Amino acid sequence: MTTAADLDAADPLAHLRDRFVGAASDLVYFDGNSLGRPLAATAERMRAFVEEEWGGRLIRGWDERWYEQPLVLGDEIARVCLGAAPGQTFVGDSTTVLLYKLIRAAVDGAPEGRDEIVIDDDSFPTDRYLVEGIAAERGLTVRWLPVDRDSGPSPESVAAVVGERTAVVVLCHVAYRSGFLADVPAITRVVHDAGGLVLWDLCHSAGSVPTELDAWEVDLAVGCTYKYLNGGPGSPAFGYVATRHQHLRQPVQGWMGHADPFLMGPGYTPAEGVRRYISGTPPITAMLAMSDMVALIDEAGIDAVREKSVALTSYAVELADELLADLGVTVASPRDAERRGGHVTLHHPRMKEVVAALWERDVIPDYRDPGGLRVGLSPLSTSFDEVRRGMEAIRDALAG
User: Which of 9, 153, 217, 269 is 20 to 30 A (C-alpha) from 201?
Assistant: First the structure.
């Protein structure tokens, strides 16, 4: 096996790791797929914002830049990461709120008789909870798609559950538990052939796995920004609504989505275009960090980021076979890199206690039931040496 030192020496993106706070420390960070490291440049950006834009311009900032920032940054995310033309992506609200707004918009706009929401039974909990709540709220039916926890939905499995009653299908591009990478274009075609819409949850792929939302004819999408987009804890999510669907009416009618927000009149008239999906005052301060990360991904190139991600996860799988298989550890993620996102899940009955022990040693993975340790590898802030040290620490914790 090629050594970690050789892999780091050959990595064309290795120099970018120095731009992240804490990346040079001995801590092993296997949780970049949950909360990305901050960029050093963000500290200066925040200082300048407080002193100059916020402190210096005060409320004038809304006229000068802030009012348009959710759409400007949305277009940047779309261009750099999503394969989407301008005017379809916006930033604002949490992932949960944006999922609610867009799922509700889809089901409320569905033709009569389309009264089912399809979702897989191992989707991220928030997605499942929201779908159940919306179904109860609107008198709809949840159609559950059974999936293997070590993989995810396929075009064939989706075709078996969609039909003339399907309003919208809600699926994750990358499965949060296994890292399974769904075939978005093929599944989207299946849903369209059945007459439904599809909403893709991009939380575990945005910034790590390239997408082509326009070319794949995706209808709706939502993604968070605190994972591979390094926006910081609680940074706002982004939403994508294809131009052809921007007639859909979202349920949270706030003043910033009004056609003339400062008219403050007696009734609500939605703005033209994607702005209508914004509700309240945009979280401008919370957009600062992700702006730096989107710029860095643009500098590296999203295809190069994906290439590095595949190399890191492939190395983790090789090390799992070399160091952990004899201890009873199995790889609960696809071995085919084309079907795997940016993390690898390792299964063993003792993984919950192993994760707790590793945190005490400054090795930070996370745990997912049943018995899953997730190795989350944020491509631009993770080295191959870090992967090696972390996998050896897992071995030592299991053997100890």
Answer: 269
Catalytic residue (choose from 17, 104, 149, 227): 227
Longest pairwise C-alpha distance within the chain? 69
Place of tokens 């209508």: 276
Does residue 201 have an active-site annotation? yes
Q: Which amino acid is at 370?
A: P
Choose the catalytic residue: 20, 100, 226, 384.
226
Which residue of the set 67, 90, 124, 238 is catalytic? Answer: 124
Domains 4-30+301-399 and 46-297 share a fold: no
Kindly tell me if the per-residue pLDDT of 400 is higher than 90.
no
| Residue 183 is among the residues annotated as catalytic for this protein | no
* Mean predicted lDDT score pLDDT of the chain: 97
Is 363 within 8 Å of 355 (Cβ atoms)? no
Fold adopted by 4-30+301-399: Aspartate Aminotransferase, domain 1 (3.90.1150)
pLDDT digits (tens, 9 = 90+) for 3-33: 999 999 999 999 999 999 999 999 999 999 9
Q: If you average pLDDT over residues 93-100, what whole number do you get?
A: 98
The per-residue pLDDT for range 187-207, each reduced to its tens digit, is 999 999 999 999 999 999 999
- Report CA 264 to chain centroid distance, whole Å: 35
pLDDT score for 56: 97
Q: Is the pLDDT of residue 252 over 80?
A: yes
Task: Evaluate if residue 370 carries a pLDDT over 80.
Answer: yes
Confidence of residue 329 (pLDDT cuts 50, 70, 90): very high
Cβ atoms within 10 Å of 338's Cβ, excluding its own: 8
**Burial degree of 22 (CB within 10 A; 0-12, 13-18, 19+):** exposed
Helix (H) or strand (E) holding 323: none
Q: Which of 19, 308, 374, 388 does the annotation list as catalytic? A: 374
Task: Mark whether 374 is an active-site residue.
Answer: yes
Average pLDDT rounded to a whole number, residues 232-260: 97
Parse the chain into domains and list their residue ranges. 4-30+301-399, 46-297
Q: How far apart are CA 226 and CA 234, in angstroms?
A: 7
| CA 394 – CA 397 distance, rounded (Å) | 5
Q: How far apart are alpha carbons 374 and 176 in whole angstroms?
A: 9
Contact by Cβ (8 Å): 141, 135: yes
